[in-house]
Amino acid sequence: MNAILIKLFATALTLSQVTTRPDAVRTQFDATKDGAEVVRILREGCAHMRKSFDIEDINLDELISTAMEDPSAVAGDNAPKILHGLDLTELNTSYKQFCKGENPANSPFEAGAVIAFYNNAVKDLPSAEALRDIKLASASVILDAAGKPYSETFEAHGRRLVVPIDQVPDLVQKAFVAAEDKRFYSHHGIDERGVIRAFVGNLASPGRPAGGSTITQQVVKNLSVGDDVTYERKIREMIVASRLERLQTKPQILGLYLNGIYLGRGAYGIEMAARSWFGKSVGALTLPEAALLAGLPKGPNYYSPDKYPERARERRAYVLSRMKEEGTITEAQMNAAMASDLGIKPPDAARQDSGFYLVDHIAREARTFAGLDSLTSASYTVRATVNAGLQSALEAALQEGLSTYERGTGRARYEGPELNLSESIKRIEAAVPAPAPVAEIASASETKKGPRKMAAAKEPAKPAVQPAWQRALLSARPQLYDVRWPLAVVLQTGKNGIRVGLPDGRVASLEAGPARGKLQLYDAVRVRLREGKGSPRADLRVRPTVQGAAIVLENRTGKILAMSGGFSYPLSQLNRVTQTVRQPGSTLKPLTYLAALNAGLQPNTLVMDAPVTLPPIGGIGDSWSPKNYDGGGSGATTMRRGLEFSKNLVTARLLQGGIAPKAPDSLQRVCDIALEAQLYAECERYYPFVLGAQPVRMIDLASFYAAIANEGARPSPYALEAVERDGKPVYSHPDKAPVRIGSADGVAFYQLKTMLQGVTQHGTAAALSGISAYVAGKTGTSENENDAWFAGFSNEITVVVWVGYDNADGVRRTLGRGQTGGHVSVPIARAIFQAAWANGVPRTALAPPSPQTRALIADLPIEPRSGQRVSGGGFIEHFRLKDGRVADTQYAMVPRETLYAMRPDAEDGDYANAEDGADVAGDVFGNLTRPRRDGYDPYGQNRSADSEPDRSADRSADPWGLRRDRREEPQAWPGRDRYGQANPVPFGSPFDDEAEPRPRQRRRDPDYLFGDDPRY
Q: Is residue 131 within 8 Å of residue 219, measured between CB atoms?
């Protein structure tokens, strides 16, 4: 028996059962005993078909006779795939046997073969009860902090918003029924006339096969048995559809259908489709809009209004005509609807393209805090803390910063285009005529506004046709859908330069960089535009291999305003803000300084920036001898400057009596603060901990820096504000005040805050000096430049940025010598702060201490290098008061006598301990205190009288002379030249009238052991 004929008979056996005995459909037959039963069922089914409609309208006899004359018409290469190989002679004989009551001697029918195929097809049949109780995968809408739709979360094939059938307007329901299943309300799941008409149509008109499926069958196909084009699927579909009709009402089945179907633009279900195509709910759809959507199930891509607007119009017209035939609308309504515009909103506004790491984090919080299994299990409305504008800007800043690093270090590599549009352009050019040349191309702003104007008003007479390359570019689906650089298509290569087409229709010249000589025609690449006079210019951007992450936290509440866990979500879904730990380097040093400040040390406390060795803890292991990043030391340094310039040796020496009498006890106090600040669940008690050797999560580090901004009140980060379903609250984030870190008081936190502001003014983050009035923070670089950090805060927000290579393969890759946090991460952080201020975050100068802290602080001027208090001018330092008086700890770590002995002497050339800092030749802000000597006017003859400051007044603010410009020669003593020799002058010396030269003055060391003769 012909294989195709076996499948047709098995399908006919199914159809006969569901139409003649729907309550007693058998799913198993015995091949040896039930042959006669199968023959009887087939004959009953054929008789039922002939009664269902006037068979003469179809005239099967004439059709089969015609087919016999030209068998290739229905069974050849052009036939539907399901009819390939059909023997029409056997089909004709079988038709006469079962539908005309004949008993041919040469009957091809073999009951055993048909039964075997049927039994296998219905094996493991899905349950109709499962469809009755099904919960459709749904999309939850995520609203941003302003209450505007920001994003959606859904599973594959589940971007839908389930809406009850009673909320779908009757007009919309009738539009779909008229288009898809006109006898929906009269059949019992299977429309036998539709099936026969489809089968006959496939015989008469070879090509794309028609299935004759009812709405009930489509529900079963979409939600249960699958959509593969096989006889087995059709058999299973008919049986389950018949059973579903007995379990559910017609409105319930229609509700499943309208919520389950795919309607283009990634939208499943009528509600999501209404929002995606028209920006409105299903309840607000007009007649032409309802008809347009009702025409899409037949072919969402083929009839797509985006790609084929004319096809969409024709399909809409068909639906409207069917509605008029059914009496749903009048002819006037039909004509008006046919004449209306498509009215769709631009596709670029239909979906979000940022915040994917944040949306993932929100879904995890929904499981943890709200107790929801999944945000896709129902249609929820999720209120998030995200600032939409800041989120996009943060991603752009991070991506550009990573690209800048690789270009600057020569590590940028071109790995090929994101995609090539050659085939797409060919298809478009073959489908539509080439556009007529236009006088000039519209500006970018006009092009961007164009689609929205078309959606709101009637289209003009005939809009300009977009070139094929532009249409291909706009419809392209790039892999890196969240990258902020625009996609461009290469239109020209060769000696005359490279030119690329932009999404707005303009053409720009391209600087190819690492892709020079590698680009091909119609390659789609990422670019960064440089606008200016004339045509735009573009720079190629390639995907970096380095990774990075950033977070913006609101200080008072802990709200996550923006977050990106990597360069691009499609490349890696690992959220490096919340799911990984990395060595924080010097960004952890503020912990040690906080412990020292809380122990009573003042910011002007002097600490030796010199080699130090700490013995093993408990006598076990090796001793520890850290080094500064530059390998040197600068002698006695204030705590403030030690933090500003990130001195490792100063941090290590604070463990030697600066926090507790013994180094292990000091380390324990630092650990205690770290644990209370929830930086770690467990602290590794080893000395390198204070330099950031223990890995930390970015989000926890951000909370700690927010606590510094809050004078010790640590917020708990969160992104999920509330969850609602059908307007009813499911979860709301509790209002919790930040928790105070009790291991340090407000005074210590405020002093630390001012010290971190010095880092941004003139320290390792001096690139932020332009905004240092508003921002404080700390850079960090882990060992061998594997990680580059910046963590900082303003009054309102905390920003943490990390850059480095992933080390999942166990190999730690360096960023390169000199690629520190100040060099790599600070520029990214600066862009994020600027973006925050541009997106509604207040820009205010760093706040003074709270009233409670203010009462315990005295502001006094000091000389910033030595920490020496001065009577006027200088730098204002913030001192802790103890019993109403300033606790003087300037020499608590370095005895005055030791420091005095180390004092530099200009005449001895003793500058061995002078710090080689960023502002060594000036004041604390890097400004020179007096003009340098003019090489063209060495004697100052052209210098104005007011150009030289009063040096006598300056000496009180600079008792050690450390603020002198080292490049300026020391002034000779009166009556002597610079070498101490006699210096006769024509008019004598007012300071030295003696004939014998006076001995040179020398400093007196109180511990000098070699007598009183200073010349010894």
A: yes
DSSP 757-802: HHHHHHSTTGGGGGGTTT-EEEEEE-GGG-EEEEEEE-SSEEEEEE
State which H helix or E strand residue 257 sits in: helix 250-260
Q: What is the pTM of this model?
A: 0.76
Reduced to 3 states (helix: H, G, I; strand: E, B; else coil), residue 934 is strand
Does the pLDDT of residue 327 top 80, yes or no?
Answer: yes
Q: What is the pLDDT, as a whole number, of residue 965?
A: 41
Q: Answer whether 398's CB lies under 8 Å from 801's CB.
A: yes
Report how far residue 398's alpha carbon sits from residue 61's, in angstroms, rounded to the nearest whole number. 72
CA 41 – CA 47 distance, rounded (Å): 10
In the block, residue with structure tokens 């039964």 = 115
The 3-state DSSP composition of the chain as helix, strand, coil percent (nearest 5) reads 40, 15, 50
Q: What are 976's strand-pairing partners? A: 982
Q: Which residues pair with 563 in a beta bridge?
A: 551
Distances (CA, A) of 102 to 2, 106, 720: 20, 11, 73
pLDDT at 923: 42
Residues 783/583, Cβ–Cβ less than 8 Å: yes
Portion of the chain with pLDDT greater than 90, in percent: 55
- Distance in angstroms between the alpha carbons of the first and the last residue of the chain: 125
pLDDT band at 78 (very low <50, low <70, confident <90, very high): low
Q: Supply the pLDDT for residue 81.
A: 53
Name beta bridge partners: 152.
Answer: 141
Dihedral angle sign, alpha carbons of residues 746, 749, 755, 760: negative
Residues constituting the chain: 1016
How much is the mean pLDDT over the chain?
Answer: 82
Query: Please, what's the b/e burial string for 595-633 (b: 16 or more CB within 10 A of its CB; e: otherwise)?
Result: bbbbbebbbbbbbbbbebebeebeeeeeebebebeeeeb
Q: pLDDT grade, residue 942 (50/70/90)?
A: very low
Cβ atoms of residues 341 and 332 within 8 Å: no
Once rounded to an integer, what is the mean pLDDT over residues 443-452?
37
Question: Coil, helix or strand for 547?
Answer: strand
Two structure tokens written together for 970: 């020391």
Structure tokens, 90:
């056997």
Residue 284: CB atoms within 10 Å: 11
Whether residue 178 has pLDDT greater than 70: yes
Amino acid identity for residue 607 in this structure: V
pLDDT band at 649 (very low <50, low <70, confident <90, very high): very high
Look at the block and give the residue holding tokens 């052209």.
942
Indicate the helix (H) or strand (E) that contains 740. Answer: strand 739-740
Output the DSSP codes for 446-493. Answer: HHHHHHHHHHHS---S-PPPPPHHHHHHHH---S-TT-SSPEEEEEE-
Q: What distance in Å separates the CA atoms of residue 175 and residue 191, rounded to the nearest whole number?
A: 19
**Integer Cα distance of 717 and 557 in angstroms:** 8
Query: For the chain, how many helices (H) and strands (E)?
Result: 31, 23
Distance CA 322, CA 342 (A): 18
Contacts 24+ apart (CB under 8 A), 571-576: 571/480, 571/543, 572/547, 572/806, 573/357, 573/360, 574/806, 575/357, 575/360, 575/361, 575/549, 576/547, 576/548, 576/549, 576/698, 576/802
Residue 594 DSSP symbol: H
